[in-house]
Amino acid sequence: MEQPVRIAYLIFAHKNPDQLGRLLGKLYYPGCLFYIHVDAKSNVKPFALAASQVPSASVIWLTKRTPVSWGDFSLSAAYLNGFQTILQKRPEPDFIITLSGQDYPIVTNQALHNWLANHIDQTILDYDVVTEDSLHLIERVDRYYLSIKPHRTIVYPYPNPQDFKKRLFNVTLRLSGLFSLPRQFPMGHQMYFGTNWFQVKPVIARYLVEFARSNPSYIKFAHTTFVPEEFFFQTILLNAPDAIRNTLYNHRMTFMQWDRPDGSYTKPISVGELPDMLNSGKFFARKFDETVDSEVLDRLDQYLTGVTPF
């Protein structure tokens, strides 16, 4: 019998411990490993209790925990730390799949393994080149985003300052000489954009870790950008040597709020979206919140056992 694809799931959780346990139970198969990063601002004990429904040997709790704040480099740093931990384990997995605790599979484990087996030499991530017309993306890197405390960021140069204090702020930082303008990617890199939910080969994870270690100025630059996890990895890989670039498959395996016709990105997935989700051709979906709509997860469980959910 053919051996299943070896998967290391790198999962980032910060809320809803029971939902994480449910996710692990649905993904588990003998031989898979779950590497779980619990936000340093959260108590890990409820998550550990919820994870007890899968064998303890399959769960590795990342001890280097980062307090993640949306918009800054903290999540990207947690990714790199997670990759380092996974790469120390032998045998290496065939794929490292990144998920959040609010993701959920929408196909069976067998379907996922069959698809990955057909792409066994590829890293699967979505990407687009960022052009001068993509102003909403360029502005993530062409100014400084300075974190002064959690969830509090100041921007330089402050766009269109309307009052004296903001104009003074711009002038003061300009005269300091510490924040040169215009900003450009280090190493002359072309910027690429994509999601941070991907399926990477260990060789690619190792390249990312070693690149970050060897290029501290690149990391310093990324620390003062906005939502870097949505361009940091793609930009490094798409500017890499051909031996790396040629293994990348431009594809997204996750159904996301971006796929909604009405463009409402923030509200969790609801049961009414099941038809679109299950007809999307994707393998995972996000994001779910059992405290808002648990029925959609119940219906997905039925679907994955052969029951029509709608």
Order of helices and strands: EHEHEHEEHEEHEEHEEHHHHEEHEH
Q: How many structural domains can be distinguished in the coordinates?
A: 2
Outline: globular
CATH topology of the largest domain: Spore Coat Polysaccharide Biosynthesis Protein SpsA, Chain A
CATH architecture identity of the largest domain = Alpha-Beta Complex
- Could you name the ranges where pLDDT drops below 50 across 5 or more consecutive residues? none
User: In the CATH hierarchy, what is the class of the largest domain?
Assistant: Alpha Beta
Mean pLDDT: 90
Trace the largest sheet across and list its strands.
Answer: 3-2-1-4-11
Structural class per helix/strand content?
alpha/beta
Helix residue percentage? 25-40%
| Number of helical elements | 12
How much is the radius of gyration in Å? 20 Å
N-to-C CA distance = 35 Å
Beta-strand share of residues = 15-25%
DSSP strand tally = 14
How would you characterize the largest beta sheet? 5 strands, mixed
